[in-house]
Amino acid sequence: MTTGALPILEIRGLRKRFHDVEVLRGIDLVVLPQQLVFVIGPSGSGKSTLLRCCNRLEEPSAGSIRVAGVDVMARSTDINAMRRQIGMVFQSFNLYPHMTALRNVTLALAKVLGKPRAEAERIGMAALDRVGLADKARSYPGELSGGQQQRVAIARALALEPKVMLFDEPTSALDPELVGSVLNVMRELKRGGMTMLVVSHEMRFARDAADRVIFMDHGVIVEEGPPQQMFSAPSEARTRAFIAELAR
Amino acid sequence: MESWSRFLDTFFNWEVIERYFPAIMKGVVVTIEIAAAVVVTGTLLGLALAIMRTFRLLAVNALIVVFVDIFRALPPLVLVLLVYFGLPNIGINLPSFAVLWLVLALVLAAFAEEIFWAGILSIPKGQWEAARCTGLGFLGTLTYVVLPQAIRLTVPPLTNRTIAITKNTALGTVIGVGEILNQATTAQSFSGNATPLMMGAIAYVILFIPVVVLGRFLETRFTWRRV
Lengths: 248, 227
Ligand SMILES: Nc1ncnc2c1ncn2[C@@H]1O[C@H](COP(=O)(O)OP(=O)(O)O)[C@@H](O)[C@H]1O
Ligand SMILES: [Mg+2]
Prior knowledge:
Distance between the termini of chain A: 40 Å
Bound molecules: adenosine-5'-diphosphate, magnesium ion
Oligomer: heterodimer
Largest sheet of chain B: none
Number of strands of chain A: 10
Order of helices and strands of chain B: HHHHHHHHH
Mean pLDDT of chain A: 95
Helix content of chain A: 25-40%
Order of helices and strands of chain A: EEEHEEHEHHHEHEHEEHH
Strand order of the largest sheet of chain A: 6-7-8-3-9-10
Strand content of chain B: under 5%
Shape of chain A: globular
Largest sheet of chain A: 6 strands, mixed
Shape of chain B: elongated
Number of strands of chain B: 0
Radius of gyration of chain A: 18 Å
Number of helices of chain B: 9
Low-confidence stretches of chain B: none
Largest interface: A-B, 28 and 20 residues
């Protein structure tokens, strides 16, 4: 490789079937360090399944996935150690409702990495500060807006210093006026050099933050390219139809 | 006026009260001891079974379900008599209080297991996934994320069930455990007066009203705090 940059995420021939339905039908995808790869596609095309295979929330049926060169599927790989290097942000936030924002962020620091309380809280506060919520550290998720909850969820992933972060429609469950705050945090992560794989339909965000846009349909990557090209002049008819639909 | 004094003499006879007060108090102590032992061991065993069930081992889960269904189906009195008169035949002689404790603890464990299990199942899959994504293992997720939420949900139904089952300590009277009702019926037959039974009833009320009130308090408190 001329750039010398080894891929952070390398997916080869990924297939996933649920019973007799093949949801992913041979996905090849490489994400280089500090890249933001943006995934779009109709509902049911397999975008969530693709992300969930990356940290084995779903077991791939075939193919290989490497994160920073390590085979996620290998028997010798400690999946729990692997997972904390792969941050995941869900559409529905999934914060722990019985814990404060800070405890949500520090739980894994304390119980997985074994950090002493003071250090875990220092790291946790820094992560909350990065998403602009240091002042909400003592609040419970139920006391926060959707946008704030999603930013806490991002801080929870961020605190573990992941090598790559996966976002599954992070703003789809938010009221329109709260979407911006989450996207701004994601922009800031991108500027900070975080490698990201993002499933979303926020085209404006993709235009100014994505290095590459991937269009998926029926379990395959139909087309990919830089955002300008994908949104203005896609070459596949299916992509054009979908983009036209999105832009309405 | 005549019947009023007869009523008082039958249910609130002062002499009888004075004579049998110590015996009833002894019964109160025994009832409290057995109830406490039943509550602690029954809920802990129920929780342990519910946790065991999360491992989803087919054979183990089948055994748990069979145990739970049988102990929920049988009237506790039947179990008490069966164990008390049955076990000596196979060479096991348990003191009567132990039989009562064992039976009620198992009955409570059966109900508690179902309540805890329902609580665990009601925690959304996303909670498990979010925790596992941070590298937390199955047990860590269960301990720090799922159980604290599940147990919160189980407090109201579990409190009600616990009250219902601990009242069954009165069944001890049929196998001679010296709890409240046993002391009261013995005193009643010696004195030929119903006053000891009234004393027993009052003792139950004094004992259980605080628990019932606490149950109601927990119920409102824990439904509010659900965020
Ligand atoms: N656990 C599952 N069991 C069975 N089918 C599933 C499961 N998860 C997803 N699917 C199916 O896989 C397909 C792709 O789903 P998903 O990856 O969620 O699509 P997307 O995120 O693009 O909307 C859908 O048809 C969905 O019904
Ligand atoms: Mg999806």
